[in-house]
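Intended use. Records like the one below are meant for learning the mapping from a protein sequence to its folded structure. Do not use them to infer anything beyond what is encoded.
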Amino acid sequence: MQINLSGKTALITGASGQLGRVMARTLAACGANVAIHYRGNAAKAEELKAELEATGVRALTVQADVTKLDEVLAMKETVKAGLGAVDIVVANAVIQYQWTSVLEQAVEDYVGQFESCVLQSVHLAKAFVPDMIAKGGGRLVGINTECAMQNFPTQSAYVAGKRGMDGVYRVLAKEVGEHQITVNQVAPGWTISERDREAGTERSESYESTVPLKRRGTDQEIANVVAFLASDLASFITGAYVPVSGGNVMPAI
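Structure written out for the chain above:
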């Protein structure tokens, strides 16, 4: 048994970023053609495109502000013209900002998290779900966070955005399930990325001490779960919030 995405087209938002590029490589390794979305890092997106094409899959880069519906709709048309209708959408892009207390956090940061978590999810659904319905199936995978269950100090804007995203995804799962479209979320813990490896910052004893598996997860471990949920192996899983955090958070029944 293996994850086989041959013949599928995947779009990953924020694919030029630390976690996004590993997801792109992983879905491509499973046989998917990949649309690499970026907002500002065109050079990294083009570098990733060349890397994926060298493995034998088709790839393209596409620029868009995912907080703007008209740009997401235009992105859909670009990807459809270049790779065909999208089968798999991975919502990974998010606006970065400096975390601080509720009393000190700028209101604009809450707006930014709402736009990049909630509105991105809505825009991607409006753009890509109709073609999935026409094809009789599809996969939407949203990248959430363990923070949505932790609610620690200074996390408020991020948690607000991601918990809003969670609501959209759960409702959408019920609305489109009859079309064999699955809607799931992957919730990483504090993940080791290429940046950590380059800087030698993979370890954090204070964080690791709280994790049952006593370590931080890796970007590849997150991407593996995304690939699973994008595949036919997960055809009867929808509406799920799946922590990939070494047991650091555990949804209760």
